[in-house]
Amino acid sequence: MIPFLDLRAAYAELKEGIDAAMLRVAASGWYVLGEEVAAFEREFAAYCGTKHCVGVGNGLEALELVLRAWDIGPGDEVIVPSSTYIATWLAVSAAGARPVPVEPDVRTANLDPDRVAAAITPRTKAILPVHLYGQPADMDPLMALAAQRGLKVLEDVAQAQGARYKGRRTGALAHAGAFSFFPTKNIGALGDAGAVTTDDDRLADRVRLLRNYGSKVKYVNVEAGVNSRLDELQAAILRAKLPVLDAWNDRRRALAAHYRERLAGIDIVELPYVPQWADPVWHLFTVRARDRRRVTDALDAAKIGWLIHYPIPPHLQQAYATLGLKQGDLPLAEQIADTILSLPISPHMPVAHVDAVADALRRAA
Question: Which GO terms fall under biological process for this protein (predicted)?
Answer without folding.
Answer: polysaccharide biosynthetic process
